[in-house]
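P.,

For your records, the input lines for the assembly:
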Amino acid sequence: MNTLYAEDTLFLSMQAESILHLSTPLFGKVMTDTHADLAGTILYLSSHTQEPLPPLHHVYAIICTNKDPRFEIIKLQDAVPIIVVASDVVFSQGDVITISERGRIHRNFRARSQNNAFLVTESCNNLCIMCPQPPKPQSMGSHESIEQRILQTLELIDNENFPATFCITGGEPTMRKEGLLRIVEGISVRSPQTLIHLLTNGRYLSNEHYTARLAQAGGHQLLAGIPLFGHVSDIHDYVVQCEGAFEQTMAGLLNCYKHGINIELRVVLTKVTVTYLKALAEFICRNLFFVKHVALMGMENMGLAKLNRDTVFIDPWEYKDELSAAIEVFEFYGIDVRIFNLPLCVVNPDTRPYCKQSISDFKNSWDTACDSCVKRESCCGFFNSSTEKFWLSRHIKPFVAV
Ligand code: SF4
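Structure tokens returned:
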């Protein structure tokens, strides 16, 4: 499986090759335009340009490579921290980053991306059997510093870079309770037209008072992505490994409807859920007809999905007929359905129009067979967690021109 070189990944987290004069952690906006006002910013010098150096005394730090022809001159100044990175690390004007005092760089916001997301917690009250990022316990102090950093990041984003959609993810974001409300409100106040895509298991939204406040904080720009894994509690509760979760999620969905929060209902396609997929589609159409759309999602081979592979993994080719049958039900009831994360060659022809290019660029990869495929431009490809060992399908076959 080939992972495309992502020139500018969103969740960049990397170690600088070396650091000079850096004694405290840094947080700030990246500037690449040396003619702009650089005061209080982190200047990124691309080694592709050889412009004369601007005045450097007001910048927080300089990021450069040791291949930069100006490197010897840069090293001469000793008033500003210098962060030396590999030449394939790229920043864009308007990125917001942190740099630890040991030179670890994290990107909080990527100005060029349409896939910006805030990870607000790694804790979760579910333990889904196919969870790609198993939850971790987190302290109150760590939650508070995450919230602070998100609110500060929002302040630093330039108006022209504010994305049409901001995703809030976790863990389970509602475990931040009041903190989540402040973050949602922060985005809404900063950019009222931005869609806030909140990925939640919906259980805490069974608290109607909280859901009403969340709706208000989001200013009618909230889309809650909520998973439902079965048409009966036994299946859903088994998948999320929590008794009573189905009842709470159902109550949460109804509260969202009542308080004007749009819903993207998410079904992850596993060996467990595809067995009852048509029954789930009928349940959704009869009881949750108000959802904005339904997303049927191919599974990501990471975390617990790898650990529980025998229980959860199924080649998508084997459930293509169940998928077609479920789509037919949604079509019949007039509910918008989308297929995420499944390559075009492993679904039936009647399913292909519903498939979306859903895999974020920083997670996307391709099979060598894709090189000659005429549908590659409209196919989502694979998660880069699909490998020789953790393959997705034995039925990958390029489409040829007719
Ligand atoms: S062969 Fe074509 S349809 Fe199949 S995964 Fe590759 S690009 Fe997609």
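Two observations worth noting. Confidence is low (pLDDT under 50) at residues 2-8. The chain has two domains: 2-109, 117-383.

Regards
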